[in-house]
Amino acid sequence: MADKIGRREFIKQSAAVGASAVLGNRLISSLADGPLSALAADKIDIAVASGSDYAAMTAKAVELVGGMEKFVHKGSKVALLPNVQSKNPGTFTKPEILRSVIRMCKKAGAGEINCLSWLTQQHWDGAGLAQVVQEEGITLKLIPKDDVNFKSVLITGGNVLQEAKILNEFFNHDVFINMPITKDHVGNKFTGTMKNLMGLNAPSLNRAQFHKPNWQTDPAAIEHLDRCIADLNTVIKPSLCIVDATEIIKTNGPMGPGELIKPLKVIAGVDRVAIDSYCATILGLKGEDIVHIRGAYEKKMGEIDLKKVKIQEIKVLP
Amino acid sequence: MKRAWIFLAVLGALGCNGLGGPLAGRQNLKIKPFPPLQKLEAFLPDKGGLQNWKAENASPLYKGEDLYLYIDGGAEIYHEYGFKQVLVQDYKSAAGKSLTLEIFEMANSECAFGIYTFKSSGKGKTIAVGQDGQLEQYYLNFWKGNFLVTLTGFDSSPEVIQGLMLIARSVDAKIRTQGRRPSLVEIFPKEWLPIARLKYIKGVLGLNNIHSFFGRDVFRFREAVIGGIHGEKFTIFVFRYASQEECRRRFQEVKAAFEKNLAYNNFKSVRADLFETTDGQGMTIFGQPIADCVALVLTKESEKSAAEILASLNNNYPKIK
Fold it and tell me: What is the predicted ipTM?
């Protein structure tokens, strides 16, 4: 069910954010509480499932990092953030992956599951994700882009960004599952878990603060965008990341159309730096090549060196 | 003083950015007015010629900075190529297949050609549509005049490919202008590679997307052409400047940047107008000025073969108008 929240209703809801933020604050991270601290040393950091059945691969990858019950407790309010930026092949999170995640959340006893987005119904229809939302009986919360629908969050550990503006609705949840597709990006060369969080941040801020005025394209402006992404990630901590690397574009990203490659992988884990560093290799890059991955590593948000990351790769047979 | 008045009058007539300003109405100065934006709707296929395809939804038009509303992430590269506006139209077939047509108006035909080369992989099938039409896995691109036309299907079924071709031909027929490729492209001998595999670059974002030499803008070029030849054994970069004088200055800056940057080793100034160095992947880079251009050849092949490439570029330079 698509639930378009009006400005007036949201002002009312914003007043309630103070109370619900007690729960929501679990999703707001501090640097001391980095993702690696959540993982015991003997556990798998990243699970990579490959094959052709995307739903089964998603389920297997999540199982290998501890199962959905580890992240979603009974009665939890779960926020999902798939990528629906474009409907071109290889640019959005596959419907089968979203469906699998929703079913796992339900099985784990989630009290409420919502997809959050400031994009439009057309985006969700185009990617085929609106249909999944409807068929699975969860809610798609399409939130208007007005600043009133976003809550200011101070960034104390940032290099270039002093403030993030996060969807008010986000704070009404206590579990956040980040579900990007990894793909090329014409500016910073890579899209993954960390870049996807711009989908929770106010578009006005994404435009005015992340991008330099007049669409400057010099390396400093691109590096600024990367630094903003790393800074944004210091204040939002996904409970779990599930990355679509099944069919992705390796040129003309993030919107496409571009050259489609089929790594046929789904990746799950908590450490965003390690996951993005791994996904960069799928695109023929290294984590160190990407400024925001390097920046997040420097902020001790995760491990960039894949030799130090426990990765389990598994083939899921159809 | 007189010069200053002329300068102000010219600025006024152009509206500084050429879009019209308070003095824009003055016609006494013979300055070509900035061309008004085209009515892109006029290039949409007629309903009668769509066979089993039908236009769906409205056809939104995004101008200038509003491109961000359509391409949320990645709009910058279009701006680097002088983006003016884009018209978007969706189509659906009787069998429920979808495709999207985008008609981009760019600042001039060089820019349209440039963004076309940027978006094309060069691995597609050459088709007789527009200028340099290329059909790729599930989409096609062509440029014509100062327009880039992109059609995207959402799978590669025969029905979708037929739809792409049908609509592409229709748009092609409605765009009556022809564009001229940038003359710099002529520096590459024709036998080296097909035109769609060249990249014509207008700025540093395009360059960095293809190859990142430095973390800052060292080359400061006006235009550039890039191509991989002989099975990608050689990658050639030709950066062009406003004058030979500027080129000489930039060549020294580029040379110094390679010499000082820790990412490069074994720097050697072979002659005053030739240097070589090695990058982190073990690729040797040869650099040489050619009139108002700086050419770089990246290769693991011998110095002699790189010298032959540079000689070919030198020989072809007079073809640049």
Answer: 0.82
